[in-house]
## 1
Amino acid sequence: MQTDTSSLSGIFARSDQAKVRLPGTDRAVDPATTLAMAGRAARAVGVTRVADITRLDTIGIPTYQAVRPASRTLAVSQGKGITPELAKLSAIMESVELWHVERPLPAGTTASIRELGDRLGYDVHALAACAPSVLHDGLPLGWVPARSLVDGAATLVPRDTVALTLDVREGWNPPVFLSSTNGLASGNTLVEAILHALYEVIERDAMTAALHAGGEMGVRADPATLGSPVADGLCETIDRAGVRLEVRSVPSPTGLPCFLARITCDDYPPAFFGFGCHLSSEIALTRAITEAAQTRLSYVSGARDDLWSDFNDDQGKPPARPAPITGPGAPITPCHAHATLADDLEDVVKRAAVAFSHPPLMVDLTDDVIGVPVVKVIAPGSRVSPEVM
């Protein structure tokens, strides 16, 4: 790919012309450098404690929590990884990301869709709406600047698709768009952040489509067929803990590998899920598995603000033990990312633009004082539901 002639070449940093390949992820620089940046940012946004909660569970996949008491959304952010260093980094960066969308985000423009006309370059009705929604072309909305990831063109997106806070808002606030962290991500560079955000948007679109289709989500897959030492190590760790793992390959209109991981055990019967998407089959798979372990630890620790209240059935009894997994899963086709983050981004953006029939859009939320690139990616035409967030 010719990244030097890209219409988005202005956002590329020198480190985006390569990548540091790590177990379960790709980054622009080494973990120690990223962790130093994240540590400085953590203090600036009010993180008071970073805790290793891995040993609260029997599985042993590294999981950390970052505590930010003054948060306007979640006071506890959680992170997972193949190594403790990567899990700690994941937790801190999630907390830093939330700080950026919690801040007051003034509307640069207030207008209706009808008044903006062709200035937007996309269909606002293709954005994820809440239920019910009062969106119509004459409704005045607050707008913030954004850029198309296809050609770099300037546009606007509704402020409420970006900002997120649990503060009580004064005045009339009609229900219009689904507020969520979908597409919120950070990184060492803007390109790294945008990639993480796009992978999440694509992953949740695939999971939402599979969920709404009914029946089994995707096709059972056999992690052992990928031939990945990292994935094999995770599977062995889970098996030693007496926990059952089921992996399903879920189709995406982008063609990217998307996986769902489901873990259960007799001692703690509820099913816990994790999702993953990436150009690399190995990274997509390991993300899904580590996220399933992280989800389970959320309930074990009880520290998160967003745990489901109906975790048990109506009688307060634990869920029934799931049926045993029988028969082999389908083989996983190895897919690989490119040699550079810049090439990865061009590939994923092109796939998303075709799959969703709209260019994905990016809002740069980076605060120079905090010093961490943070973005919100919004992909008109993509699907997302609360069940997969």
## 2
Amino acid sequence: MLQTDSYRKGLWRIAVITSLGWGVLSFFPMINAGRPFFFRGRFPREGMREFRIPTSENHLYAFMGIVLLMLCLWFFNIYLYGRLGKVNLSEKTRMISRYVLSYVFTTFVYYGMMALIYVASDGARVRIFPLIVALTNNTIILVLMDLIFLQRKSDQIAVENSQLKMNHAIAQHQHLKHQLQPHFLFNSLTTLKSLIKRQRPEAEEYLVRLSDLLRASISTQQETTIPLKEELKLCVDYLEMQKVRFKDSFQYQMEVPERILTTGCLPVFSLQLLVENAIKHNAFTVEEPLTIRISFQEPNSIVVWNNRRAKQTLEPSSGIGLKNLAERYRVISGDGINITEAEEYFSVELTLLFDEHCHN
């Protein structure tokens, strides 16, 4: 269906160009024959002098006749396509009806024009060959229109597929993020329970920071990515919560230039997840503290690094963490994350996202 002005304008541009083109092409047989190709310069009645139009007028009349005929055919075919598109018929029936009506109209228009020429030339005989040419031209118009509509449908399908992929990616990302939030909240509440039993003042401070962090997470509920500056703030809130619990047995460092803070973005809670993993999977004391370092690495990466000291007894793990983050990166940008696991340290490199990947 012709539903957009751009396609209508495009069709009419093609109609005008092709009509003028056919008019120009009509000069060649006229130049060879010395007369318009759609009637002969003689009359069937005996004794009547031969009718001849001056050559320049022959060319002009023929040019105008061809252009007018082609524009009529284009107009009718465009109109017919729009009208039949509103009729409740199958695609095949619509196409057959369109072709039959189009050829009938072409024949009618041709003989109508020939009747006018007959009167104007006082008896010029109508020829069959130009009718064949007119039907051939109409076939070309029908084929061109079908190609244009096929291309339009192809473009529409491509746009719809792209939109479906985007919607699927957003839904998939939201699902992954919603997996992560209960995971984080469960761990935080477990820690809070432990603090309430042993360290009530620290538990109160921890609860205040947890409240601030959850408030921030609600404000980013519908967001896929977040500016680096805001993501670092969420991460610092989480680290300060852990400082309440572990005191001086762990420390963290931020080495991110000010100029980088507002230039890129990261998936929401990506840094918090990485530092949470570092705290969860390592043993640390005041004598041998855990060190977490978040730094910028040229040209456009954020690296989360921590020293390693494996726990003797591993805590139960849901396996959501790194797998979740890697999948979220794949959904958003098509890239993964770089993990480096050595005996003395563990690091994860996250590529900063820019432009089209930084959206809500």
